[in-house]
From TrEMBL:
<dbReference type="GO" id="GO:0008270">
    <property type="term" value="F:zinc ion binding"/>
</dbReference>
<protein>
    <submittedName>
        <fullName>Carboxysome shell carbonic anhydrase</fullName>
    </submittedName>
</protein>
<dbReference type="Pfam" id="PF20686">
    <property type="entry name" value="CsoSCA_cat"/>
</dbReference>
<dbReference type="InterPro" id="IPR036874">
    <property type="entry name" value="Carbonic_anhydrase_sf"/>
</dbReference>
<feature type="domain" description="Carboxysome Shell Carbonic Anhydrase catalytic">
    <location>
        <begin position="96"/>
        <end position="173"/>
    </location>
</feature>
<dbReference type="GO" id="GO:0004089">
    <property type="term" value="F:carbonate dehydratase activity"/>
</dbReference>
<dbReference type="InterPro" id="IPR048539">
    <property type="entry name" value="CsoSCA_cat"/>
</dbReference>
Amino acid sequence: MAVHHGPIEERINWLLDLAHRHTAEFRSPDACLAREHYQARHPTAIVVLKCMDGRIDVPVVTQTPPGIIQPFRNLGGMFDLGWPYLGEVLANHIHRQIAAGKRVLLLITYHFSRGSEKRGCAGFGYNTQAAIDFTGRIKEQAERIFGASHATVYPIICGLETDEDALLIHGRDGRVLDLSRIDSGAAGHLRSRVEELFPDMNGQMQKDLTRLLQGNLNWMAKVRQRGRTLEIEHREWMICLGRGFDFLHTPNLALIIGPYSPDLADPIRKAAGIIENNMKAGRIPDDGFLLFASVPYEDIGPDQARAELKSRFLADFASQVIRTHHPHLAERMHRLTAVLSWRSRALSLLPEA
């Protein structure tokens, strides 16, 4: 069944099966031991701020075991660390890592395509320089919050060229390390390049960043060897609101809205407009779309109960926005409301109230 063209019921079933397979893989003995082994060798905690685009899959392009990298995703990769909820969630996560004795590498990402401007980031109107400038402002905010000396938290601007999945690392002095330009035979010099770009970075963190870059070189070699079909046309058929959508890394499938902005209605309206246009243009079937709300929880009991209430609130809020601004689309709306165990990545669907 084609993910974009089957009946809506089949597409939803495909999605739930994808989530189930992701959970099973994450909880497998091999995956658990791989995470433990990786963290023992590379203790630096890694946080990534990134776009909702399914192509931006940092664990895959760096060959890092699932569950190591903590993602924050939003439409266009647009964040403001002054947003109350985002600041709270990010700060709490970083403080937990520091309390465990770890330093934190904060990757602030943008993406673009060398082959076609229209394969770039629609959130910035396909203007890569505008995206870079925006990530620079986030980096300044991070340094204001966590310190400019980078002793514990080190923010880095990181580009991703999606045609080859190549990382571009922006150094302190304005130099950029473009991994697509590095010959595989020169990979042994990666550590020295990292030291040149970030001379004030802790030695262990330099080592752990180098491992990410080496993983990216290995991944690019696979991409170049097998080739790939480049997706140009947007065919999203679902709106995902909340957190816990790490299993969704299929291009042009979902519009993911993190619950971070003080004005949630605006991105919901825009996402609904995109899906309605996709239907009108025949890029997706017009028999329905999915509104999917998900909220993660750490512990059973009150934390899980609060996550359930929050997930239902998000679904109800988004439904009302869509009914108000896109009433014809609302008639074709299907809803899923769920919570996600952050420890096991088990997704639990909630019954409709």
